[in-house]
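Hi R.,

As promised on Friday, here is the backbone we talked about, encoded as structure tokens. Could you run it through your design pipeline when you get a chance and send me back a sequence?
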């Protein structure tokens, strides 16, 4: 928690004035029972109406001054809390952006979202309440006890007994609930992660008819979290009744002892009423303090979770000075015995990987799921650091480039297109902020999205949903627009993910880029690639890398391997088709699976025909 208080440094004035005005309000509140004593013992006892009126006006004045002080304190506390949360969110976001993919994988996206939103909001509430009540409530509790001793020492002994007992209850419950609140926050993280997975993978879940299973798993985790929160809530709920019992017991003892004191003439009736009022003030403030402590407990748990993000430093370091490209380098990208092992993984995802890409060449990277295609591509812009070997871009080790310089050389269209809520033009200008409308139009035409954009109302200024989630054909064109965004940047080399490497319009980007790698699954057209690299279990197969511009054809061994892969995938799709026919009378999933079967068989036939021609 102490590490995060640095974000209050710009609000020192508010952090001081807020509690100060609350203490002024509390001071005026402690004077009210004394005024009531005077009204009873002097005004009512003597029947002096004018005196009673003066004292009532004095009470109203004290109330108005207290109200002004309270509003002022609330203003300063809210300003400091909101500013603290804004600074914390900004710093947390900047820190997350500085982390490498390895640290983000370790922390988890769902957990980071929770810490950026729910945890920071909880801290904001905690700071606000602390500035308002953390000094006020103890001040009134102990101030009321002191005022009671000024009235009558013997009666005030009731306060001396009640306050320690109340402290034991409050702090005991706090110590019990703190670890439970931390567990509840961790459970919320797990629930949010499952929710996010289900929402992002809803099509897959429906395609495999797993709705009931996923619903059951979600219900189980939700029930587990609910039971934990109810358990914590029951413990916290004990605070109010226990404090009420103690306070009311103290009031009974106070009235009983006060009655004897009045009988003997040691106390007046007004003084007994004042003592009861002070005890009531203690009751109210202790309840506030109890709720404050619960909030502080939650905020402290959230603070530790946020601090753990700040404690997570990037495993990558980038030089401050720009690197000088090697003018003699003939290769755009070079892998030299590269290996990659993800954090916590038992085996290497890539091992012994070596190849060269000349300037102007296009490389197709193929292989089955989990073979390391995406891992290979992520190493070039240094999203991950290779655990073995080295990677050169323009003759310079990627570790010697500043992040901005390295990534300005590379354009990436990821496997999953990510667009941001806004206009089409705003999304395209991610590639080049100062791009003109003419340049954007060229990018759209190159990516075959110009026709789609022209049909939308507003054209380049048409709004795009978050993530580019548009129905039907619009979704496909928006994905093509992601390719256009990278083309608009006019970068030196492009990395195309699986989802975009088959887009015909993207092929024209090779005329702009001086080097390109396309990571493909089972839908790649090998004849369009200058180099084909086949990955299996993180390694490149010997003898299957061929320069097609020199040899003019794909190696027969490579074609046969591709045909086998396609036949296997077609068989899997055929099984999915049969299953879909059984479980879906409407045929929606069946049509989807059938289309996959047809695509797979067509590609297999194409490759096998090529093999036949090569052998002939």
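Update: got your reply. Pasting your designed sequence below so it's all in one thread:
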């Amino acid at each position: 928690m102490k590490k995060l208080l640095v974000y209050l440094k710009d609000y020192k004035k508010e952090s001081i004035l807020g509690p100060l005005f609350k203490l002024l309000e509390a001071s005026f509140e402690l004077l009210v029972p004394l005024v009531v004593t005077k009204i009873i013992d002097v005004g009512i006892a003597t029947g002096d109406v004018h005196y009673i009126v003066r004292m009532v006006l004095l009470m109203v004045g004290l109330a108005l001054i207290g109200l002004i002080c309270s509003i002022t304190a609330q203003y300063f506390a809210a300003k400091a809390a909101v500013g603290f949360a804004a600074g914390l969110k900004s710093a947390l976001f900047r820190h997350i952006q500085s982390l490498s993919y390895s640290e983000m994988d370790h922390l988890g996206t769902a957990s980071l979202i929770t810490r950026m939103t729910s945890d920071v909001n909880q801290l904001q509430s905690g700071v606000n309440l602390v500035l308002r009540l953390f000094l006020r409530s103890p001040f009134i509790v102990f101030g009321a006890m002191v005022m009671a001793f000024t009235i009558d020492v013997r009666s005030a002994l009731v306060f001396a007994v009640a306050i320690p007992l109340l402290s034991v209850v409050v702090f005991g419950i706090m110590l019990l609930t703190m670890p439970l609140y931390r567990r509840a926050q961790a459970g919320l993280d797990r629930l949010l992660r499952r929710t996010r997975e289900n929402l992002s993978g809803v099509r897959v879940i429906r395609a495999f008819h797993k709705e009931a299973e996923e619903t059951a798993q979600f219900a189980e985790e939700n029930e587990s979290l609910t039971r934990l929160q109810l358990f914590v809530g029951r413990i916290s709920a004990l605070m109010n009744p226990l404090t009420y019992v103690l306070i009311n017991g103290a009031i009974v003892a106070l009235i009983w002892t006060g009655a004897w004191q009045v009988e003997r003439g040691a106390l007046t009736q007004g003084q007994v009423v004042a003592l009861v009022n002070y005890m009531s003030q203690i009751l109210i403030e202790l309840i506030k303090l109890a709720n404050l402590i619960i909030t502080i407990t939650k905020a402290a748990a959230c603070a530790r979770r946020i601090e753990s993000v700040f404690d997570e430093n990037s495993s990558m370091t980038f030089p401050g000075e720009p690197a000088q490209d090697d003018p003699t380098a003939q290769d755009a990208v070079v892998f030299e015995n590269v290996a990659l092992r993800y954090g916590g993984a038992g085996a290497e995802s890539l091992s012994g990987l070596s190849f060269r890409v000349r300037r102007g060449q296009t490389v197709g990277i193929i292989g089955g799921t989990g073979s390391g295609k995406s891992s290979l591509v992520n190493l070039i812009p240094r999203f991950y650091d290779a655990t073995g070997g080295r990677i050169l871009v323009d003759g310079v080790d990627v570790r010697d480039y500043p992040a901005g310089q390295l990534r300005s050389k590379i354009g990436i269209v990821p496997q999953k297109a990510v667009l941001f809520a806004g206009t089409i033009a705003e999304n395209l200008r991610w590639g080049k902020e100062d791009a003109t409308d003419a340049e954007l139009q060229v990018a759209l035409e190159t990516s075959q999205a110009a026709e789609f954009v022209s049909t939308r109302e507003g054209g380049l200024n048409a709004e795009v949903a978050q993530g580019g989630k548009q129905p039907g054909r619009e979704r496909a064109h928006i994905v093509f627009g992601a390719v256009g965004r990278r083309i608009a940047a006019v970068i030196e080399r492009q990395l195309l993910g699986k989802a975009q490497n088959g887009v015909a319009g993207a092929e024209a980007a090779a005329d702009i880029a001086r080097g390109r790698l396309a990571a493909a699954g089972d839908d790649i057209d090998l004849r369009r690639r200058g180099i084909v690299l086949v990955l299996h279990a993180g390694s490149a197969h010997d003898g299957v890398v061929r320069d097609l511009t020199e040899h003019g054809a794909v190696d027969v061994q490579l074609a046969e391997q591709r045909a086998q892969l396609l036949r296997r995938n077609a068989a899997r799709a055929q099984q999915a088709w049969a299953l879909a026919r059984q479980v879906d009378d409407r045929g929606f999933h069946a049509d989807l699976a059938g289309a996959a079967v047809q695509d797979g068989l067509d590609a297999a036939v194409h490759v096998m025909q090529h093999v036949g021609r090569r052998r002939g």
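One thing I noticed while checking it: The first helix runs from residue 12 to 46.

Thanks again,
M.
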